[in-house]
Amino acid sequence: MKLMCALILGLLAITLNEAAAIEPDDFLVGPIEYQQDVNGVPVTIVAKTYFKIQTLENKLYLKAQVIGDLGDLQRKIGSIVDSFKLPWENCRSYSPNNPVVDIPRKELPFREGAAVFSIGGKVTMWECLENPIPNTKVEWQLRNVGLGIKTKVPVVVTWPGSPIKTILLTQPFEADLPITLVRNNESTVSLNVGSPDIELKGSLAFITKGVLSVAGIDINQKAADALRKAIDPEKLKLTIPEQFQEFNPKIDSARFIDHEGRLAIEMNLSALIPAAKVTDMVKGLIDKKV
Predict the structure, then answer these.
(1) Same domain, yes or no, for 6 and 66?
(2) Which of 265, 223, 249 is nearest to 34 (CA)?
């Protein structure tokens, strides 16, 4: 209702002074919150929508700018990465191929027009060998020594020796994965995952240029999948009031921005206001005043 009232007042101002094409001040709807589940981590998106009326080629358009604040996603990116279940066992097998991944730095900044999944850590390669010398200890166990007599006697107990584990090498790394928004057409927006920029400070053969893949786990792909769950442009569009949706708005642009120091989505939409709708709304306003 507030949106319709602001729209009517704006239309009336334009009707009274068409030559000047007066535009009303932006009208704010929101903030509106909605939650996304990202690998068991709840992420809250806060959306605000700013409306204004513009004239273009003698037609009236209702413009909407939606700002989706992703600050909560930035704060929780560490917990999301921790949900990837990266290799941590240094003796998964008796072999020299037991990588352990540690990622202490996990960030999601806005950089050069993109949301950048940025991580830093290391891969430690362990060799694990079976111990040929078993562990032994003496236990006192209750035994029947005959004639119905039971007593505790010393018994030597053995079990496999503790594995022999050795660090073969450590591979530090840093990786940046840029994520941008792409306007597919007038009604849909999707996330575009760029090529990862990886800096290796060692020489592990199984980490190839372009893809950080550790023990069969593609960290970049897992990050991209998680961000697609968190950043859903369709959910952002649903925060727009129904009155605007009735005009079949078109998406003009979508991008990541820095909003008050936080990562955010900016989506711009516009809808042509039918002449009959303008007449009906102005007439209804006049009738209410009579």
Answers:
(1) yes
(2) 265
Ramachandran class of 115: left when φ > 0, alpha when ψ lies in -120 to 50, beta otherwise:
beta
Q: What is the pLDDT of residues 229-280, one digit of tens each?
A: 888 888 887 777 777 777 788 888 889 999 889 999 998 988 887 766 665 6
Tell me the residue type at 182.
Answer: V
**This model's pTM is above 0.70:** yes
- The pLDDT score that the predictor gives to residue 2 is 46
- Which tens digit of pLDDT belongs to each residue from 72-98? 999 999 999 888 888 888 888 888 888
Q: Does 254 share its domain with 172?
A: no
User: Does residue 223 fall inside a structural domain?
Assistant: no
Q: Into how many domains does the chain fold?
A: 2
Q: Containing domain of residue 17, as a range?
A: 2-70+231-289
Rounded to 5°, the CA angle 29-185-221 comes to 90
